[in-house]
Design brief:
Length: 582
């Protein structure tokens, strides 16, 4: 007997089965030998009569050969998408997105066909539009009183989904020790997630330790930034928190916290992972460490775990007394300085520090000097990262994609285009601005009532905070939280937490301008744009920020940015009463 063969079989006259000869050849090679007009260029069609088709031209022959090859080697089709993508990348590489990387300080080397939005030409745009801005100075402008459309908003109120209970918490399963790293709001994220995990595991949380980050270089402890006593008190009914490990527990580990097992937990781990992997170790050993603890809990978790996040972020974490005291004074001074607009002011989170500009790989208007400074800054902070072999950096494409940090000049033009005049009070929250004297001058020209930490507080008041980036950031955070309008320019944890905090305080609306930086790149690369067109497009951008201000949280989003509906309840008004509903 013979096994099944995909090659087929032929029968003899006696009905016996004989091995099949070689499979038939491709139709392409079956020449029409019986055709009187047959030539090498034809082949027989499918009919019994045999229709000869002649290939009339070179193009027809070429297409025929390609189709035949593909038919015989159908696996080629698997590579078609890859070939298409490769061709597109090759095509993109011929475009002028990387202008400026080859520039050596002169505009003449920039191609005239550079795509709109790929070049930094904001100074030319400002020079063109400044006369129109000047003409609108000192006009009666009530925009600050009516920035946000109150009529279209749904009202939300804080509503944390946790049961308040005076009963004692159950016996703890052990001590949880975490290490928070990063800047102020990265640490805040780790603390809130640690509270949630401690609640999940019924663990006693030890006040988190802060890792000394090589970038932030801030040696502050938890109590230097946050009110430690209030944190413990606010969580007392939901999570046990202690300042340090009890002496008897520490003795079991030879008085060395490093001897406590450090569990390596994957990023964005689920509650199930903690219950199955961490809890058994916690019960067995009595204490566990998780370091680092950045982004170690998934966004999508049950409501009771989210409730612990809400309580810790919006209720338990408040800044230390020295920070609160000075911040309150600065807010009061900012309100007094904004008397012409009813005490309302704009806050801007400006990310134009040297490291930020260097990391972006964007090119501005500093020529060779800027390029050298950025190369040095990149090498200092990210050794070799930007000099890897075959790494291609295209500043033009980065700018068109809206990834370049906005300069102070661009922020000012954006706000003036939206309708804020020169009488508007502006607070700038920032670190050390790159070439501040040069880049801040036009922003001050457009908004003379501009303030920073250094102008609102005296050197003596700021002295205890100098050299501590997280404490200085806490001052900025408070000033931004209490502003009528908050402007974010570059993303990051600072605006993400602040937007959520503002939603929590302002009935669900962020009152935040989130600019479309792709659109801005085009506007700021149009030196001859009409003022009316410039205003129209920026006011549409402001309206879009207003509409998006009350967004609800999506399943995979962070409640620190979108506190509705996990941390807030919708306020529904009826004829007889006003009640909250989730």
């Amino acid at each position: 007997m013979h096994g099944y063969s995909r090659l087929g079989r032929s029968s003899t006259g006696s009905g016996s089965i004989s091995p099949s000869p070689s499979p038939p050849s491709s139709p392409r090679f079956r020449r029409n030998k019986g055709s009187s007009g047959g030539g090498g260029g034809g082949f027989r069609g499918g009919g019994g009569g045999g229709v000869d088709v002649k290939l009339q031209s070179f193009v027809e022959r070429w297409v025929y050969v390609v189709i035949s090859a593909v038919y015989r080697r159908r696996g080629i089709l698997l590579f078609a998408p890859l070939l298409y993508i490769s061709a597109m990348l090759l095509y993109m590489g011929t475009m002028g997105f990387d202008v400026g990387m080859i520039r050596k300080g002169s505009e003449s080397s920039i191609g005239k066909t550079a795509p709109v939005g790929s070049l930094y030409r904001s100074p030319q745009v400002f020079e063109h539009l400044w006369p129109y801005m000047e003409a609108e100075n000192n006009r009666s402008n009530d925009l600050m009183m009516n920035v946000w459309n109150m009529k279209t908003r749904q009202s939300w109120k804080p509503c944390i989904p946790l049961q308040n209970s005076e009963a004692e918490l159950p016996k703890s399963n052990g001590f949880l020790i975490i290490e928070a790293n990063g800047g102020l709001n990265q640490q805040r994220l780790s603390i809130c997630d640690a509270v949630a995990v401690a609640g999940l595991l019924n663990a006693t949380l030890v006040i988190p330790m802060f890792h000394l980050n090589s970038v932030w270089r801030d040696s502050s402890k938890f109590g230097d930034i946050f009110d430690e006593e209030f944190f413990i008190y606010a969580l007392r009914s939901h999570v046990n928190v202690v300042r340090e490990l009890p002496e008897d527990v520490l003795t079991r580990f030879d008085n060395n916290i490093s001897n406590i097992v450090n569990l390596r937990v994957k990023g964005w781990s689920s509650p199930t992972y903690y219950l199955q992997k961490v809890l058994p170790k916690l019960v067995e050993l009595g204490a566990v460490r998780i370091a680092p603890f950045s982004n170690r809990l998934a966004h999508a978790v049950p409501s009771d775990i989210q409730g612990h996040r809400c309580l810790s972020n919006f209720g338990a974490l408040r800044f230390s007394e020295p920070i609160r005291t000075l911040a309150a004074k600065m807010v009061d001074r900012m309100i007094r300085n904004s008397s012409s607009s009813g005490g309302k002011y704009i806050s801007v989170h400006l990310r134009f520090e040297e490291d930020m500009v260097a990391f972006s790989c964007c090119i501005y208007d500093g020529g060779e000097e800027e390029q050298k400074e950025m190369d040095i800054a990149r090498e200092r902070s990210w050794r070799g990262k930007f000099r890897k072999k075959n790494r291609i950096i295209k500043p033009g494409a980065i700018r068109m994609d809206g990834k370049c940090p906005l300069t102070p000049l661009e922020v000012g033009m954006m706000l003036r285009g939206m309708g804020f005049d020169n009488n508007t009070s502006v607070y700038v929250a920032a670190g050390k601005i790159y070439k501040a004297e040069k880049y801040m001058a036009p922003l001050k020209q457009m908004f003379p009532r501009l303030e920073t930490k250094d102008t609102l507080a005296s050197p003596e008041e700021l002295a205890p905070f100098m050299g501590y980036s997280s404490r200085l950031a806490a001052l900025d955070y408070t000033l931004c939280l209490h502003s009528e309008v908050f402007v974010t320019t570059q993303g990051g944890n600072f605006p993400h937490f602040l937007i959520g905090h503002r939603r929590y305080f302002y009935e669900g609306h962020a009152k935040t301008i989130i600019p479309d930086k792709r659109k801005l790149a085009q506007l700021f690369d149009s030196p001859h744009i009409r003022w009316e067109s410039f205003q129209k497009q920026l006011r549409e951008m402001l309206h879009h920020s207003d509409v998006k201000g009350s967004e609800l949280k999506k399943p995979t989003a962070s409640l620190f940015t979108y506190p509705m509906p996990d941390c807030m309840c919708k306020q529904a008004t009826t004829k007889n009463s006003t009640k909250l509903r989730r």
